[in-house]
């Protein structure tokens, strides 16, 4: 797939387009499944100002949005973090989650155990490698799914009541990470209703009702409900890349 994600933010005076290639590798590959480039333009005249590494921006901004959702939606006493998947997004999520939150225990599971072991050995803090997704999830307060799964790998009867789930993978209308039980028995938050109803297999195929967009919670027009079991379905929005690219460009400019 080749995705094109243009966006303009009047508030940030920023105009960008992100170009993303997505190749589903049948076998493990040294080349990432997602590769991206962000083009930053001058909104006044359309001149190209910068070409940025979109893969880094995507990894960082996706994890940042998950962190915002988690700050708002996670239970009051969250001690155990679980990450399902060990790719690029697992690393970016681990970095920001361990920087912003204090977890007593971090667990990881990956379909290929070697990648989970590599992850645990390469990050700064202690991480427990689990032999099954169920083992990793049981008793976890915050769960992050960043897998290439096309059928559910996280099941509702495993999840602790009141836990918060950031569902980041399964970005196609026929792909799943979460089962029907979890989708239907949780309070569902999304980044974009429109995107979720056209792109997310977890939302479309389960028929789960969307309670709110994350922006509505940030603005205070919808409650967060952290006492409930919550799911944040993240698909990503072009404006997130725009704001991030402008921030990187301004930081670079200030240094020059």
TrEMBL record:
This is Ketimine reductase mu-crystallin. Homodimer. Binds the thyroid hormone triiodothyronine (T3); T3 binding inhibits enzymatic activity. One of its GO terms (biological process) is thyroid hormone metabolic process. Its EC number is 1.5.1.1, 1.5.1.25. It catalyses: L-pipecolate + NAD(+) = Delta(1)-piperideine-2-carboxylate + NADH + H(+); L-proline + NADP(+) = 1-pyrroline-2-carboxylate + NADPH + H(+); Delta(2)-thiazoline-2-carboxylate + NADPH + 2 H(+) = L-thiazolidine-2-carboxylate + NADP(+); (3R)-1,4-thiomorpholine-3-carboxylate + NAD(+) = 3,4-dehydrothiomorpholine-3-carboxylate + NADH + 2 H(+). Belongs to the ornithine cyclodeaminase/mu-crystallin family. GO terms for cellular component: cytoplasm. One of its GO terms (molecular function) is thiomorpholine-carboxylate dehydrogenase activity. It comes from Dromas ardeola. InterPro entries: NAD(P)-bd_dom_sf, ODC_Mu_crystall, ODC_N.
């Amino acid at each position: 797939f080749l995705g094109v994600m243009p966006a303009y933010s009047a508030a940030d005076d920023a105009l960008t387009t992100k170009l993303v290639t997505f190749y589903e590798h049948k076998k493990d590959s040294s080349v990432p499944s997602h590769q991206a480039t962000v083009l930053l333009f001058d909104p006044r005249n359309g001149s190209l100002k910068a070409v940025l590494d979109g893969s880094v921006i995507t990894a960082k901004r996706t994890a940042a949005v998950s962190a915002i959702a988690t700050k708002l939606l996670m239970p009051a006493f969250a001690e155990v973090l679980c990450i399902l998947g060990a790719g690029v997004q697992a690393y970016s999520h681990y970095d920001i989650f361990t920087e912003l939150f204090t977890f007593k225990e971090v667990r990881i599971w990956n379909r290929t155990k070697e990648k989970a072991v590599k992850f645990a050995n390469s990050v700064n803090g202690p991480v427990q490698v689990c032999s099954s997704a169920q083992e990793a999830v049981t008793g976890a307060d915050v769960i992050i799914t960043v897998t290439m799964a096309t059928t559910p790998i996280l099941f509702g009867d495993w999840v602790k009541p009141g836990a918060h789930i950031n569902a980041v993978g399964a970005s196609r209308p026929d792909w799943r990470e979460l089962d029907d039980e979890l989708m239907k028995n949780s309070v569902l938050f999304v980044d974009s209703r429109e995107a979720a109803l056209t792109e997310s297999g977890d939302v479309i195929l389960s028929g789960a009702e969307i309670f709110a967009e994350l922006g509505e919670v940030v603005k205070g027009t919808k409650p967060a409900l952290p006492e409930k079991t919550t799911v944040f379905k993240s698909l990503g929005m072009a404006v997130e890349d725009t704001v991030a690219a402008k921030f990187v460009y301004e930081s670079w400019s200030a240094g020059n």
